Amino acid sequence: MDDLVIGIDLGTTNSCVSLYTEGKTKILENAFDGRITPSFIYFSPDGEIVIGEHGVKMSVHKPENGIYEMKRLVGRQFDDPELQKSLKYFPFKVTASPSNLPLVSVKQKSAICKKSPQELYTVLLKALKKYTEAKLEETINKAVITVPAYFNVAQKEVTLEAAKDAGFTVLKLLNEPTAAALVYYFENDTDKTHRSLVYDLGGGTFDVAVLEKRFENIQVLCVAGDTQLGGHDIDTCLLNYVYRILRTQYGYDPEASSDDKRRLRLKCEDAKKELSTVESTVITINGMVSKHPKIKISLTKDEFEAMTDHLFKKTIDILDECLRSSKISKRSIQEIILCGGSTRIPKIQKLVSDYFDGKQLNKFVNTSECVAEGAALQAAMLSTNRKQKIDELRIVNVLPLSIGTWGHSLCHDMSFLIKRGTKLPTSVTHVFVNTETDETTFTFDIYEGERLDLRKNRYLGTVLLTDVESAAPFQKK
Ligand SMILES: Nc1ncnc2c1ncn2[C@@H]1O[C@H](COP(=O)(O)OP(=O)(O)OP(=O)(O)O)[C@@H](O)[C@H]1O
Ligand SMILES: [Mg+2]
């Protein structure tokens, strides 16, 4: 029988694997019966590699060898300001490769080894593959993997290469909000044209997408987001508050120790989660400051919301700009789907609902699993295995970031060839004029991004045109 195809949600904080067979999706647990696996890799000093929850626990003794949030490093240059911001808070060391890519250093068997984000992704994906194969008792080589809708070409390429190195043939990289919408439309079948908005705030990324379903077609109308905005940044606000108190009230600098940095981040994350259900909490810090063996920092929900308000508002601004630039009215949206662990924060739910004039939100029962389930549905649609027979929905996507080239060889203006939001696939015709040479080859660079100064956009590659008709005969006339 043909291979089964699985769906993988490769998250900043958590990863999840799902399979659609015999008419339903199920989550495939890891070797420790966990439905989600923390995207965490611990390199033990004696050479062992431990993934997930166990890795998190073991790294307590050696936090600089516990690697997480690789998704924040993927496809970025070392000197990318966004990447530099994240580095400040990691307990592990990251250095630049000769080609300016980030390399994570870990110490195993007294030797320092350096791992690229792609290699780290491969380690994680190999572990997920192993768990899945053990669960299903068969070899699994094919997958659909989800990525943020706002991932750029470089970030997608690294994901694909890492999956290939882990032994997967990736049938599709599916956008995370589209995956969530797929689950919604499978559960809520309708023949009428229906518009939904997905607001996905996870551990490290924020995505918003508007989708329209008409019969068997799902058209993505617009996407926007920020690949450096998520639960991590909310935790960082709390962490900075705790750092400030430790410095000013206890004369202690926790940033000097990677152990303290990791411990305090985990405490802040716990406090944040608690404040989603209670009005106040206490962060207890034992044995960190010698003169003060037990420090208690109390925090109310109001204080937490004031500290993080700018981040929550940023997501609403992105959402607003996404609708405005695509000329989609709020009222035309029939369903608002929340997914991602950070949407458990009541203030976020309130802001989104208020933006839509008090409209009721659709919260997935398990917001941490819906993206993997959507990936599994897409996987089944691409599978030829008869156990994975499923009604097909055709998804039409849009370009998340504009593509362009230089407008004039003497200046650095970007000439936009394909605007973001264009329905895919698409084609474009562009006339290049070059009368200064009699050469029969011609090169031009391709960039991705929205900035008018092309040097501030992301360079994708150079196209070489050969057999170009020479301009020389025209010049001689
Ligand atoms: N009850 C809660 N209240 C607030 N935040 C929560 C709660 N539960 C989980 N989170 C946060 O949700 C985030 C993880 O969510 P999720 O698993 O959806 O992220 P992810 O899919 O790994 O990340 P991304 O999609 O951004 O790559 C973490 O930052 C976590 O702290
Ligand atoms: Mg996610």
Sequence-ordered SSE layout with sheet pairings:
Blueprint: E1 5-10, E2 14-21, E3 24-27, E4 37-38, E5 40-43, E6 49-51, H1 52-58, E7 66-68, H2 81-87, E8 93-96, E9 102-108, E10 111-115, H3 117-136, E11 142-147, H4 153-165, E12 169-175, H5 176-187, E13 194-201, E14 206-214, E15 217-226, H6 231-250, H7 258-274, E16 280-289, E17 292-300, H8 301-325, E18 335-339, H9 346-355, E19 362-363, H10 370-382, E20 394-396, E21 403-406, E22 414-418, E23 442-448, E24 458-465, H11 472-476
Parallel strand pairs: 1-11, 11-12, 13-18, 15-20, 18-19
Antiparallel strand pairs: 1-2, 2-3, 2-4, 5-6, 5-7, 8-9, 9-10, 13-14, 14-15, 16-17, 21-22, 21-23, 23-24
Bound molecules: adenosine-5'-triphosphate and magnesium ion.
Summarize the structure in words.
With 477 residues, this protein is an alpha+beta fold. It has four domains: 5-175 and 371-394, ATPase, nucleotide binding domain (Nucleotidyltransferase, domain 5); 188-228 and 309-367, 2-Layer Sandwich (Nucleotidyltransferase, domain 5), CATH 3.30.420.40; 231-306, ATPase, substrate binding domain, subdomain 4 (Actin, Chain A, domain 4); 403-476, Sandwich (Substrate Binding Domain Of DNAk, Chain A, domain 1), CATH 2.60.34. Helices cover 31% and strands 29% of the residues. It contains eleven helices and 24 strands. The strands form six sheets. Strands 1, 2, 3, 4, 11 and 12 form a six-stranded mixed sheet that branches. Strands 19-18-13-14-15-20 form a six-stranded mixed sheet. Helix 3 (117-136) packs across helix 4, helix 5 packs across helix 10 (370-382) and helix 6 crosses helix 7. It is globular, with a radius of gyration of 24 Å. The protein starts with a strand and ends with a helix. The mean pLDDT is 93. The structure holds adenosine-5'-triphosphate (ATP) and magnesium ion. Residues 9, 11, 176, 202, 340, 371 line the site of magnesium ion.
